[in-house]
Design goal:
about 180 residues; mainly alpha; two-stranded antiparallel ribbon; 7 helices; about 0% strand; globular
Length: about 180
């Protein structure tokens, strides 16, 4: 029997939501406390951040989780035993969240918009964690969107790990040539 070996500093689901949730609440607080900037819509920037997350998630999955050690090894173990949810190492979440949280600080003249965009990225990360967890449950989803995501994720795990990298959307798989041939 193959055992999963993850780093000691790792959280399983739902504990994996803790760090990005705290960061998202911090970005929401910073955004709400920042003065408005003319011509920049906070809600629009939050949605833009969420959309940007889908591309970032695709790239992280395709490039980092399938090519860069130690993430590749951890992810391979997840592919071998998809019934055991992949645990998100603290170092991975930290590497992901640190730049997102740093963005408003680096763009201090546009603090509110940067916080709104970062909030969108963090909400995307949280949604991806939740959806990914749901995709590994034994029951077929009833929701058509979630069922499609479930089918593509299962194809990625069981038939061809070089396609269907997107968790929240198949858009980037289509744009970047890694969608499932139908």
């Amino acid at each position: 029997m193959h055992t999963l070996r993850f780093p000691a500093a790792a959280f399983g689901f739902p504990q994996s939501l803790l760090l990005p949730s705290i960061a998202a609440l911090a970005m929401l607080w910073l955004w709400m406390r920042s003065p408005a900037v003319d011509g920049l819509s906070g809600p629009g920037l939050m949605v833009a951040g969420l959309c940007a997350w889908t591309l970032l998630e695709y790239l992280l999955h395709r490039l980092m989780l399938h090519r860069v050690e130690p993430f590749k090894g951890w992810h391979l173990q997840h592919h071998l035993r998809p019934d055991v949810p992949m645990r998100t190492p603290v170092v991975f979440s930290g590497m992901l969240i640190l730049p997102v949280v740093s963005l408003p600080i680096l763009l201090h003249t546009l603090f509110g918009p940067a916080a709104a965009f970062s909030l969108g990225l963090l909400v995307g990360h949280l949604l991806q964690e939740i959806v990914h967890h749901r995709l590994h449950m034994a029951t077929h989803p009833v929701n058509p969107w979630l069922l499609e995501r479930w089918r593509e994720h299962a194809f990625h795990h069981h038939r061809n790990e070089h396609v269907a990298y997107g968790t929240l959307t198949g858009l980037w798989d289509g744009v970047l040539g890694t969608s499932i041939a139908r």
